[in-house]
Structures are given as C-alpha cells and as structure tokens.
Q: What sequence folds into this?
C-alpha cells in the first residue's frame, strides 16, 4: 500500500511540475526555432519574473498586481533586449550567446546589489491542499499544472490558426522564403521574444511562489531548458513538451526514490545520453536559411 502511495505521489507530482518545465522550455526553444539563436538570458528573465512579483507585493499591489508585473516586465525586457542588442547581431549566433550571457550576469548581480543573496518570499498565489487517493498535494501545484497547459494550448492555437502564428511557422522554416511572401522576419522575431519573455515571467512567478525567489534561481532553469530542448529537438515545441515530461518524471522519481540532493542531476544525465545517441533530439529538424 505504501509503495502504491509513493508511486501515485511521483506520477501526480511529476505531471504537475513537468507542465511548468514545458512552459519554461517552450520559450527557450521558440527563440531558437524562429531566430536561430540561443538566449542565455532566459534563466535571468525567469528570475526577473519572480522579483517583479516580489516587488509588486512589496508595493501592496496584491496578487493581481504581482501576476501582471511578472508577465509584463519580463515580456517588455525581452522585447527591448531583442530590439536593442540581438537584432543587430542576428547573423552572428555566437555573439548573441555571449551578449545574452553578459546580460544574464548583469541582472543577477544587480539583484545581489539591491536585495543581497537572501531568498525572498513571494505573495502566496493560492493556499491549501488537495488529495488524490490519499496522497496530498499543494493547491498551487494544481493551479500551476492547469495554467501551464492552458497557456501551452493557447500557444498551439495561436501558432496554427492566426496570421501571425503562421508567420512564425514560415520564418522558422525559412527566413528567405518568408521574406519572399512579405513576412518581416524582424517583426516575427520581436513577437517571439516577447512571448518567450512572458512565458519566462509566468514560470518565475510560479517558481517563486512555490519555492522562493533568489538571484541565482534562473541558472538551474537555464540548464533545465537547454536539457529539455536538446532532448526534444531544438526548435520543436512538441519535442519540448515531451522532453519536459521525460526529464520531469525522471527528476521526481530520482528525488523521491534515491536522494533529494540529486535533483539537478537527472537533466544533465539525460542531456549527455541524448547527445551521444541522438544529437538532433527526438523531434529535431534542420532549419533552412
């Protein structure tokens, strides 16, 4: 009976947390899939989302203000980062990686200067617990699961059934082909960065509310994002969702059955195995110029 309870806990907890992992990874893979560059400031944008919610709470704006701040500020930051720096370096992916890495370090150090290294508590989005077959879980995890899947579902609808979404698909397939039919790659890239920033902010809000907010919280999420998109195939949204669940289940099983100190090891192990066996990932594809 105890074994069944542990198994149920692992399955439900992994399903809920993996949904958030998918949301984190989709923002990362969207930018590469459309623009062909890696955003190493993705983790710092997650951190920005968490601290935006924290400051909104400190200003007495309540939960609605915290939610709005955690989405709007990272989305605006991502858009400005693209327009101010990345757009000028799009033809040089290595420079984009270096630039976004430097930006990430600057953000983290700025938080250290203003807030120190002490973890900060965010406004509690929702309190209480719920039970499934005797196993108890936080309501926050349930909300995190539902909201993450609603956002992922809306993204799929947006990409497949709107003019802008089809523009995103076109640019991801071929920048030259998209330009020939009148699609402006720079506009599509800007939209993609804003979406990715908003996703990162939402992830930061949930992570900060579930755990706490810290200046370095985005580092682990950047490694997680990279691991997931490599497993799923860089540039593949479907691959990111599947990769998130694969890594999420392995991580939760490892922490519950072996040791909680191994939490960050699962993504790295899967990453190494995939790079050795199937470097293009589960659903990787080549992108046209």
A:
């Amino acid at each position: 009976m105890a074994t069944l309870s542990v198994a149920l806990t692992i399955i439900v907890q992994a399903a809920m947390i993996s949904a958030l992992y998918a949301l984190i990874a989709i923002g990362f893979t969207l930018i590469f899939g459309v623009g062909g560059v890696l955003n190493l400031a993705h983790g710092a944008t997650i951190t920005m989302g968490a601290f935006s919610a924290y400051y909104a709470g400190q200003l007495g704006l309540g939960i609605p203000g915290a939610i709005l701040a955690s989405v709007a500020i990272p989305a605006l930051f991502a858009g400005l980062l693209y327009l101010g720096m990345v757009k000028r370096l799009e033809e040089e992916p290595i420079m984009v990686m270096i630039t976004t890495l430097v930006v990430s370090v600057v953000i983290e150090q700025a938080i250290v200067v203003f807030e120190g290294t002490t973890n900060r508590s965010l406004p509690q989005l929702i309190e209480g617990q719920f039970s499934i077959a005797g196993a108890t879980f936080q309501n926050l995890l349930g909300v995190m699961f539902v909201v993450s899947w609603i956002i992922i579902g809306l993204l799929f609808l947006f990409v497949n059934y709107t003019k802008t979404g089809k523009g995103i698909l076109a640019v991801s397939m071929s920048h030259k082909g998209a330009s020939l039919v009148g699609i402006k790659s720079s506009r599509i890239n800007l939209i993609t960065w804003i979406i990715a920033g908003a996703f990162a902010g939402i992830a930061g809000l949930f992570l900060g509310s579930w755990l706490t907010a810290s200046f370095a919280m985005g580092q682990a999420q950047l490694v997680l994002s990279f691991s997931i998109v490599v497993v799923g195939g860089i540039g593949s949204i479907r691959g990111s969702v599947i990769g998130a669940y694969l890594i999420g289940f392995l991580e939760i099983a490892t922490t519950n059955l072996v040791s909680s100190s191994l939490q960050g090891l699962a993504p790295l192990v899967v990453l190494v195995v995939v790079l050795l066996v199937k470097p293009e990932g589960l659903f990787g594809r080549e992108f046209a110029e």
